[in-house]
Design brief:
The chain is an alpha+beta fold. It has five helices and six strands. It has a three-stranded antiparallel β-sheet. The chain has a three-stranded mixed β-sheet with strand order 2-6-3, with no helix packed on it. The radius of gyration is 68 Å and the shape is elongated.
């Protein structure tokens, strides 16, 4: 290839640029003084070179394809930032979904534990009710066992008193006094048979015992030896299975000042 020709262009933007390049190539290759034959030969060679130059010029379709590719590239670049934002949003949504899942699991665990506690409380309440009913039944049975002998004996004493009342008109005064005197003894026997002890202090003037005696009134005395002693026994005391139900009521001597 002739060194005087300009290097081929890969692309032209306008027809004016193309004509300018061709004119420059023609003016540089044609000498100032030439013959007709030379001119003809030059023109032929020039046309060949021009054809070669045109070979390197891209077609309009190629230019349009490249423009479309460039526009697609630009569009893809423009779409990258929203895609990045979408990816960040997706990451945040995934993290939020994981937190929601963990909270949901925690709530389910708490609900399960609450249900278990409610079931345990219900079972405990049911067990307590059952124990209470059993204790109430046992208490009733115990009362029945304790009271049954007392009730039966009381019924027997009532029957004896009714018989005595039926024969009241036929009884002599001595028999009537005997029946009346036997009433306290019969009742004491009833209490003793059911575990109740009659508390009566031994001796004529026993010493005062705060646990056994209840002072109803005091009696003044000049005798120092009688100070703090029982003057008179008014009512007996009663104890049941070692527990004092009632103290013995009595009068107490007190030294006169």
């Amino acid at each position: 290839m002739n060194d005087s020709l300009p290097p081929p262009f890969n692309s032209y933007r306008t027809e004016e640029e193309e004509d300018f390049v061709l004119q420059s190539a023609q003016s540089s290759t044609v000498p100032p003084y030439t013959t007709k034959s030379d001119t003809q030969e030059e023109s032929d060679s020039e046309s060949d070179q021009r054809l070669h130059v045109y070979d390197n010029i891209p077609l309009v379709e190629d230019i349009e394809e490249k423009c479309e590719e460039a526009s697609q590239t630009v569009c893809s670049c423009e779409n990258e930032s929203p895609g990045t934002e979408n990816s960040e949003a997706d990451v945040r949504i995934d993290a939020l979904e994981k937190k929601i899942e963990s909270l949901t699991a925690a709530v389910e665990t708490l609900s399960t534990r609450l249900n278990e506690n409610f079931k345990y409380a219900a079972q405990k309440a049911e067990l307590f009710d059952r124990m209470y009913s059993e204790m109430a039944k046992y208490k009733d049975d115990l009362y029945a066992k304790l009271l049954k002998p007392f009730i039966l004996e009381t019924i027997t004493i009532l029957d004896d008193y009714r018989k005595a009342l039926e024969r009241l008109d036929k009884l002599t005064p001595e028999q009537l006094h005997k029946v009346i005197r036997n009433i306290p003894a019969d009742l004491e026997d009833l209490l003793e048979n059911n575990g109740v002890d009659v508390l009566i202090s031994e001796g004529e003037n026993p010493l005062f015992d705060r646990k056994l005696h209840q002072v109803v009134r005091t009696v003044e005395t000049d005798d120092p030896e009688l100070d703090g002693r029982i003057a008179k026994k008014l009512r007996p005391g009663y104890a049941w299975n070692g527990t004092i139900l009632r103290q013995e009521k009595a009068e107490l001597y007190k030294l006169k000042k």
